[in-house]
Amino acid sequence: MHLTRATLRPDLAILTMAGFLEARPRVGYFYSGKSANQLLIEHIQSLMVKDYKSRPVVVQEKTSVYDAICTMFLEDVGTLYVVKGQNRLSGVLSRKDLLKAAMGNHELTAVPVSVVMTRMPNIVTCKLDDTLVHAAGQMMRHQVDSVPVVRIAGDEEWEIIGRITKTTIARAFVELGENISI
Ligand code: ADP
């Protein structure tokens, strides 16, 4: 090609980083045989829950529905997680759960959230080492806006350590669209 090594090397490095070529030290560069589509899929499947999770906003089981509504507004989130003891996941409260409770003729300061939440073991969760695609699939299949990230904390007990929401997935999607260099 009548090009010097110095000219070729940066281009080969870029193609290697993008996954089109494989570099074998002291041997040379080889075509990986992967299409741009395959590389994009591999990249998407490499996104992990542990790198994208955000902070969960939690309330206690005995918190009143009124206080939970205030927390939802103040913390600017769409889902609250209900815990007992040391961050042990016991329930989920969505906007509609709280709206439904507010529509009845109840004294909202007296009703505890444990009465209106969706409770364990009916909560769809994910783990730190799940892929983001798996967490998004869980949200789609179960038609919920978020999944708590949990780790095992004993017999049938789960500690809540994060959350993945539809906003998380939108953020990852935007990052992919803006940064991908395949
Ligand atoms: P919204 O109430 O705004 O539609 P969701 O779709 O997230 O929000 O919630 C719908 C129902 O599913 C609610 O009753 C809620 O308690 C429940 N829910 C929310 N997240 C989960 C989850 N991860 N696992 C199981 N149930 C959930």
TrEMBL record:
Pfam families: CBS. Residues 48-108, 117-182 form the CBS domain. InterPro entries: CBS_dom (IPR000644), CBS_dom_sf (IPR046342), Diverse_CBS-Domain (IPR051257), UCP026546_HTH-CBS (IPR016842). Keywords: CBS domain. Gene3D superfamilies: CBS-domain (3.10.580.10). This is CBS domain-containing protein. It comes from Seinonella peptonophila. The lineage of its organism: Bacteria, Bacillati, Bacillota, Bacilli, Bacillales.
